Amino acid sequence: MTLQPPRYQRVLLKIGGEALAGNKEYGIEETVLARVALEVKEVQDLGCEVALVLGGGNIFRGVAGSAKGMDRTTADHMGMLATVINSLAMQEALEKVGIQTRVMSALVMAQVAEPYIRRRATRHLEKGRIVIFAAGTGNPYFTTDTAASLRAMEIGAQILCKATKVDGVYDADPVRVAEAKRYRELTYIEVLQQNLKIMDSTAISLCMDNGLPILVFSLLEPGNIKRAVLGEPVGTLVHGGHT
Question: Where does residue 25 rank: exposed (0-12), middle (13-18), buried (19+ CB within 10 A)?
Fold first, then answer.
């Protein structure tokens, strides 16, 4: 049986921290980690190079911390450390299924992660390793969505896949509005003009300026990562113009 070749040869997969929590209110759901690891392995077996960025909202969210009176810079650094915890957990899950994995941190913590160096990251990918980018950009006031956009362009990814708890982008909150409409495609400008909360405006603008498409889909649906990499219709595609 011949495997279907992937549409994208190199992708950056952004997974929200809340998605890692599964049905828990906070923390990490081990079954979610294990399933994601198996799906990433399946994608890698197709010949696709995969890098990951994990959010930290299941452990700590910097904006929420600053809203409660904490210094924003301190709160954001705590959020970055939360992404390192998630990254180490994901590394463990991936290595359990036989995938060589490297965690590269934007904050220096030599005992647990390599420092982020772009050329080293691309070399890891070329050697068939999964690379997990931790600690955001290393700077406060920037989200992990912005970090994902930045790292995707630095490594030459062909698409930024954002896996969330929702199966795409809607014109209203589908949890609160039963008749909310899901978009199949959107342009970057439409996302910004309609203030659709799929990523912060900095991340969207960064992708728009560099022509990096964004695919938003549900992590909760098994097989969606593979469908995204194969180019099958899933979720919502954000790009420069309708084709």
Answer: exposed
- Residue found under tokens 């995204």: 228
Query: CA–CA separation, 63 vs 69, rounded Å?
Result: 10
Q: For residue range 157-170, what is the model confidence (pLDDT) as tens digits?
A: 999 999 988 899 99
Separation of alpha carbons 28 and 33, rounded Å: 8
**What is the rounded distance in angstroms from the CA atom of residue 212 to the CA atom of residue 207?**
5
How confident is the model over 43-82, as pLDDT tens digits? 999 999 999 999 998 998 767 777 788 899 999 999 999 9
Nearest alpha-carbon partner for 9 in 235, 233, 230: 230
Q: What CATH superfamily is the domain 10-239?
A: Acetylglutamate kinase-like (3.40.1160.10)
Q: What is the pTM of this model?
A: 0.93
With b for 16 or more beta-carbon neighbours within 10 A and e for fewer, the 167-196 pattern comes to bbbbeeebeeeeeeeebeebebeebeeeeb
Domain ranges of the chain: 10-239
